[in-house]
Amino acid sequence: MGLSLSTETVGDRTVVRVGGEIDVYTAPKLREQLVELVNDGSYHLVVDMEGVDFLDSTGLGVLVGGLKRVRAHEGSLRLVCNQERILKIFRITGLTKVFPIHTSVEDAVQATD
After folding, report:
1. Which site among 17, 58, 61, 83 is 20 to 30 Å from 92 CA-CA?
2. Where in this chain does the record put each STAS domain (predicted)?
């Protein structure tokens, strides 16, 4: 399975909807998308991972890299995920302390964290 990406603007946030698998083969595509958005001036990102079936360490690295990029511009990167198997990865790695994780795009867009 591959990776699908789409973006939309919701308020002052750019929502990146991700579907499929984020792994060593597909993560570069997500990295390129995040870099392009930041280079274009989108510093407040919401990554919607509801359609993600699999996430490996390469994918985690891309998300952390994206967070560093937006923070360099006083921005934010919020995740949307309520799938237990994906949330478990964030808990095990301690990344729940790094990323604000929301249960819906609406919550993430309205959050002030």
Report:
1. 17
2. 3-112
